Amino acid sequence: QVQLVQSGSVEKMPGDSVKVSCTASGYTFSDYHMHWVRQAPGQGLEWMAWIDPQNGDTKNAQKFQGRITVTRDTATSAAFLELSSLSSDDTAMYYCTRDLARYYASGSGFWGQGTLVTVSS
Amino acid sequence: DIQMTQSPSSLSASVGDRVTITCRASQGIGNYVVWYQQRPGQVPSLLIYSASTLHSGVPSRFSGSGSGTDFTLAISNLQPEDVGTYYCQKYNSAPYTFGQGTKLEIK
User: Fold this and answer.
1) A107 vs B1, B34, B85: nearest CB
2) DSSP label at A65?
3) Are A34 and A96 in contact (CB under 8 A)?
4) Are B36 and A45 a contacting pair at CB < 8 A?
5) Which of B8, B54, B3 is nearest to B26 (CA)?
6) Out of A37, A62, A109, closest to residue B55 by CB
7) Are A32 and A102 in contact (CB under 8 A)?
8) Strands A92-99 and A115-119
9) B12-21: per-residue pLDDT in tens?
């Protein structure tokens, strides 16, 4: 069965960077696009970025331009989100998700368990 | 960027009622809309894709409709386990924007 297992919760200081991992299993990693979505406490869902694991192509939301990096390692079936210049506004649960259908955007049919990133001085 | 405007932001209904949630895109997006349910304290889960196709395992009392700019999620015969927040999302092209969410409570 499809599983997305994310790295554990972290606490960071303002100005730091954070790197969250998402390890996939139960399917061919390269065949499905992956996304990163975050949710601040008590707030709604916010789409951050997308990666095509087959070729490494990425797109991200404009608000994160310059401080977001999304990568993948096909050898370990893992995707990574790195966010720099953290502020308290980045305190949120971060989710990796997998598209429902192969090769194209189709909605997030599978979700990781979430990684809580807390930014505090 | 295309915006997704959901309404209402919250609603309260009784068990057995039928409720509807709407999502309006600022530009036409065909049928490239999905709906998610997020129960309290849980990870979101996919309900409907391609605007109207029920995801595997989702009860048939959930339904979706619409195309272009206006989309609707309907829940008939409301059940206590339907409590949570519902989100629409566009996926025709990046950015894959979510609606603001609709919090559903049971009276």
Assistant:
1) B34
2) T
3) yes
4) yes
5) B3
6) A109
7) yes
8) antiparallel
9) 999 999 999 9
Note whether A50 contacts B94, CB cutoff 8 Å: yes
Which residues from B are below 8 Å from A45, CB to CB?
A: 36, 38, 44, 87, 89, 98, 101
- Check B43 against A113: CB less than 8 A apart: yes
Which of B43, B87, B96 minimises the CB distance to A95?
Answer: B43
Give the integer Cα–Cα distance in Å for B36 and B51.
11
From first to last of its 121 residues, chain A has per-residue pLDDT tens of 999 999 999 999 999 999 999 999 999 999 999 999 999 999 999 999 999 999 999 999 999 999 999 999 999 999 999 999 999 999 999 999 999 988 778 899 999 999 999 999 9
DSSP secondary structure of B38-95: E-TTS--EEEEETTTEEPTT--TTEEEEEETTEEEEEE-S--GGG-EEEEEEE-SSSS
- For A31, phi then psi, to 5°, come to -85, -15
- B55: contact with A, CB 8 A cutoff: yes
Compute chain B's Rg from CA coordinates.
Answer: 13
Do you find a cis peptide bond into B95, omega within 30 degrees of 0?
yes
Residue A39, CA atoms < 13 Å, CB-side half-sphere: 22
